[in-house]
Design goal:
With 266 residues, the protein is α/β, with parallel strands linked by helices. The protein is built from 9 helices and 11 strands. It starts with 6 loop residues before the first helix and ends in an 8-residue tail after the last strand.
Length: 266
């Protein structure tokens, strides 16, 4: 189940390496997917009847969700086919785990298991950093620690996963707009020197969401004069890791992986 971006191609390549036959249901603009799949089926989030029929026809035994699925597209959509409307009605909400569990139970009815994404991302999940030449200053570490605490709270509450902060003052909190837009908004309000922190809810369901940052995130950070881009280690995925680290070095941004126990205290 492929949303937008480069991640579906990486996960499809790993699935094929593991011996899976890969059928890609493409819901967004993917990059580099074709060499790693056996069949592509263009799909729409509001038209799930054909998706379910194709899954049965292809005798799928497992499903892997990958890439960006925009909740805003669902919120703006008017109507949908009977299958899509039925799933939403049974879930009762688009927020929280209700929708995910409804999707899981619906697919289970076809004998399909939804797989954990982390088994298909390779080395893009990283340990504690820093990964760049520059490390945060002590003042920036203070913002990283505070931002990590706040980002975890926001993620746990289902608000968003990213907080931008400068000298102890929160500039923006991510909601439905996504990480990139939250960074742009925070930089516009606080100016250069911003610290960006992305964390993950303790109960995050990695079958449906592996939080990520990538080149687009870095471009927004560089354009806004961000000083530090910190992510929760081993829980946030670095898309195109080598490119990300190189770009952060060139922009003078400290790119770090942190946990509450590993951020230095002096």
């Amino acid at each position: 189940m492929c949303g937008a971006g480069v991640l579906p191609a990486r996960m499809a390549a790993e699935a094929r390496r593991q011996g899976w036959r890969v059928v890609a249901f493409t819901f967004g603009d993917t990059v580099g997917l074709e060499p790693h799949i056996d069949l592509a089926i263009p799909s729409r989030i509001t038209e799930l009847g054909p998706v379910m029929a194709a899954l049965a026809r292809e005798r799928a035994s497992a499903a892997l969700f990958s890439g960006k699925f925009w909740l805003g597209d669902v919120l703006r959509a008017r109507g949908g086919d009977a299958t899509a409307l039925g799933i939403v009605a049974r879930a009762g909400t688009l927020a929280g785990g209700g929708l995910a569990e409804t999707v899981v139970s619906t697919l289970a009815g076809l004998g399909i298991e939804v797989l954990d994404q982390r088994g298909f991302v390779g080395d893009w999940l990283q340990n504690v950093g820093p990964w760049t030449t520059r490390a945060p200053t002590e003042e920036e570490w203070q913002d990283v620690r505070h931002g990590l605490e706040l980002a975890r709270l926001c993620a746990a509450a289902g608000i968003g996963q990213t907080v931008t902060i400068k000298r102890g003052v929160v500039a923006s909190i991510e909601a439905v707009e996504g990480t990139t837009a939250a960074i742009q908004r925070g930089a516009g309000l606080a100016g250069p020197g911003l610290v960006v922190v992305k964390a993950v809810a303790p109960t995050n369901d990695y079958r449906f969401d592996t939080p990520t940052i990538g080149p687009e995130t870095l471009e927004a950070a560089a354009a806004g004069g961000v000083a530090v881009l910190a992510v929760e280690a081993n829980r946030v995925l670095l898309l195109e890791r080598d490119r990300l680290v190189t770009g952060a070095d060139q922009a003078g941004i400290a790119l770090v992986g942190v946990s509450s126990d590993d951020a230095p205290r002096r």
